[in-house]
Each structure stands twice: as structure tokens, then as C-alpha cells.
Amino acid sequence: MRVVVPFSTDRPKTRLAEVLTPDERREFAEAMLADVLDALDAVDRDLDVTVLATDSVDVDAPVVVDDRPLTTAVNDCLDSVPTAVVMADLAIATPDALSDLLDSAADLAIAAGLGGGTNAFLARNSTFHVDYHGASYRDHLEIADEAELSVREVDSRLLAVDIDEPEDLAEVLLHGDGAALDWLVDAGFELDVGGGRVEVVRE
């Protein structure tokens, strides 16, 4: 099974600019990518994993450089089935959660992000195509419906959490166990549980 992991090297994670410098955002993004690749590597099945990056990146997986918009680049990867697409910022995704998606027999198995985006999917029918903008999850369900594809909506918090905003860092500190967690700890981030709420602070 082919698995594509899109990764932007151009100004990654701009919504974290409030708490991370440009160099830190790049390092943290690469740490999350490493965690996603490690989780996929631990899935108990034969996967052909490729990183679809906007520029060269040093990772333990084959890299295809494509600087076109995400929708165009991913659609060109869907010419063979089955093909899965897993976003590179799913820092708390586990092998079991990914296996649940990848084991689906539906024409389209799809996992939503908390904000309405599409965090991961598996397409077993070549008529499916992506359209990444805004609430893409809803759009992708409509595309599948119009093509009369069978759909399985994968309800997984571990796949729903993508790390975009400063408050999302708490999810990594609470549930992460890989490179992204190590990077945050080394950078001085920790959880403050005072006052009846959990907040991310930096030493």
C-alpha cells in the first residue's frame, strides 16, 4: 500500500510564530514528521511510504519534491490505489490508530481534523480526488458521495489532533512519546496545571 506524507518546508507552522522562531518551527515540524514516519513504520503491514515535500528534507524515507499547491500535488499521487495520505503534523498518531484507518475496506476511509480539515485518508477507488481548502473534510465526503463511493469515517482523537496552534502543544506534552515531545521538553516547554486549567508555558 502506498502512503504519502505531505510536508511543507516553506515557512512551516506559521501559526506557531507566537511561541517559536522560524528556525524552531522548522525543527519542530521535522520532529513531528519523524514521529509520523515512525508510527507508520510500526504499522504491521507492508507500506510504501513517501514524503511529498515542497523542498528537500533529511528524513528516513524516500522524498519526492513537489512545490505545487497541496491539492494538485496530492491528486497526482492518487493515480494508483490503494493510496493513503497522512499529514505530517499528527504528532500523537499511533500505529494502532493508523492501522484502523489503513485496514478499512471502504472505497474511502477518512479521518477528520478537529478544525474540519482532512488529517488522513485511504482511497481504494481512483475516482476520488482531493480539494484542500477550508473545511476540506466535508468537501471530501461530498466528493465521495457524488462518485457513489463507500465511505468509512474514522473517529479517532489520535488522528484528529494536528498541531497548528500554540495551545495544541499541550497535546504533545500530554500524549506524545517521540521526537516532537523530546524537542518541546528540550526547548523548555512544560505544562502548568495551576488555577484549574492546563496551560503550556516555556521556561
UniProtKB/TrEMBL annotation:
EC numbers for this chain: 2.7.7.68
Signal sequence range: none
Keywords carried by this UniProt record: GTP-binding, Nucleotide-binding, Nucleotidyltransferase, Transferase
Catalytic activity entry: (2S)-2-phospholactate + GTP + H(+) = (2S)-lactyl-2-diphospho-5'-guanosine + diphosphate
Pfam family, one: CofC
GO molecular function: GTP binding; phospholactate guanylyltransferase activity
Domain of life assignment: Archaea
UniProt xrefs under Gene3D superfamilies: 6.10.140.50, Spore Coat Polysaccharide Biosynthesis Protein SpsA, Chain A
Pathway noted in the entry: Cofactor biosynthesis; coenzyme F420 biosynthesis
UniProt cross-references to SUPFAM superfamilies, sorted A to Z: Nucleotide-diphospho-sugar transferases
Enzymatic class: transferase
GO biological process, one term: F420-0 metabolic process
Self-association and partners: Homodimer.
Role summary: Guanylyltransferase that catalyzes the activation of (2S)-2-phospholactate (2-PL) as (2S)-lactyl-2-diphospho-5'-guanosine, via the condensation of 2-PL with GTP. It is involved in the biosynthesis of coenzyme F420, a hydride carrier cofactor.
PANTHER family found in the cross-reference section: 2-PHOSPHO-L-LACTATE GUANYLYLTRANSFERASE (PTHR40392:SF1)
Family: Belongs to the CofC family.
Protein's recorded name: 2-phospho-L-lactate guanylyltransferase
Organism of this sequence: Halolamina pelagica
